[in-house]
Write a structure and sequence with these properties.
By secondary structure, the chain is an alpha+beta fold. It contains three helices and four strands. A hairpin with a 4-residue loop joins strand 2 and strand 3. It comes from Pendulispora brunnea.
Length: 107
């Protein structure tokens, strides 16, 4: 796999070690939001774009996160596009993209 030398490319290289990148996998995109209400506003917009969503509060960090989940091919371009899309829609509510993760598709 030939990925750019950045955080997303490095993550995809690690995932490729135990997953088949030619098959879809569930990917969670995290959106840092300033409040529960903002989280639900982001969730509503992301749901309209095909993401499954949930809003959670982390007592340790005292932060709200909107998790936007989608089954998709884990390509570099798709990951970057999803982060861009979610970053743009969350900006209106004071949110920002805060990374992504997956358990892959090896199981």
């Amino acid at each position: 796999m030939n990925f750019p030398d950045d955080a997303d490319g490095n993550a995809l290289r690690r995932i490729a070690e135990h997953s088949d990148l030619s098959n879809p996998m569930t990917i969670d995109f995290m959106i840092d939001v300033p409040s529960e209400r903002a989280g639900h506003d982001v969730a509503r917009c992301a749901s309209a774009r095909g993401y499954s969503t949930r809003v959670e509060y982390d007592e340790e960090s005292e932060r709200w996160t909107c998790y936007c989940t989608k089954s998709m091919l884990a390509t570099y371009d798709a990951i970057v596009a999803a982060q861009t899309e979610l970053g743009i829609l969350s900006d209106e509510f004071g949110g920002c993209s805060d990374g992504w993760g997956t358990f892959g598709n090896s199981g």
